[in-house]
Amino acid sequence: MASAQPSKAAQDVVNGTKQLCQFVPTVTSILAILNAPGAPAADKVVQAVCAQVNKTAQASFIEPGKKFTVTVLGRPVDGALAK
Fold this sequence. Notes:
By secondary structure, the chain is of the alpha+beta class. The protein is 48% helix and 19% strand. Helix 1 runs parallel beside helix 3. The radius of gyration is 12 Å and the shape is globular. The termini are far apart.
């Protein structure tokens, strides 16, 4: 049964990506990765998300606060660059 509060692992990923690469993913998209069979640990998800965010940011300018989606481990991760 899903709880109203995001899991600690999901919140760790959100906080980690914000600190590491200034990307704030939605908890829903992070939970989709963490709940997948064989999901990696939260710190590995942070690294994977930031690698895709950095790749996307290098390919084109993305304004802070602008929402965009990256694909991580075959799943979409929605979020925005921190302002």
